[in-house]
Amino acid sequence: MISFNYETDFELENEAQYEDWISRIIESEGFDEGEINYIFCDDEYLHKINVEYLDHDTLTDIISFDYTVGNLIQGDIFVSVERVQDNANDFKVSFEEELKRVLSHGVLHYCGYKDKSPEDEALMRSKEEEKMQMFHVEH
C-alpha cells in the first residue's frame, strides 16, 4: 500500500495515478509492494531529520528509511517540496518531472540501486529515466 502524507501545504494532484505508477515500478523490478509512505515536507522539516537521524547538516531533496524485508518493499520516503522546486529550476525541468525523478529514486533505492559511486549513479539515473517513462503508460 502506498500512501501520501503532507507536512506542508503541497498536495499531489492525482494521487491514484502516482500510486499506480509507483506500484508498477516495484512490479517491474520483480518486487512485491508492502507499505510505502511518502511524506511531503519543507526544507526545515527534512533538514531536522537529516541532522537528527543521519548526522548530516545539509539540505537534501529526499531521505528514505528502508524497511524492506526480502522481496517486500517497505519504507518511509521524506521529500522536500522546496528542494524539488529549486532543483527543477537548477536543472531547467518542470516541477512535475523533477518530482517524478525523486519519487522513483526513493523506491529504486529500496529495489537495491545505489548512487554513491559514479557507476552506481549512472545506473540509478538511467533507471529513473526508464521509470519516469512508465508514468503515462496505460496498462
TrEMBL record:
One of its GO terms (cellular component) is cytoplasm. GO terms for biological process: rRNA processing. Binds 1 zinc ion. It comes from the Bacteria. The keyword Signal does not apply. GO terms for molecular function: metalloendopeptidase activity; RNA endonuclease activity; zinc ion binding. InterPro entries: MetalPrtase_cat_dom_sf_prd, YbeY. Zn(2+) binds at residues 105, 109, 115. It is an enzyme of class 3 (hydrolase). Its cofactor is Zn(2+). Belongs to the endoribonuclease YbeY family. This is Endoribonuclease YbeY. It comes from Flavobacterium cucumis. The gene is ybeY.
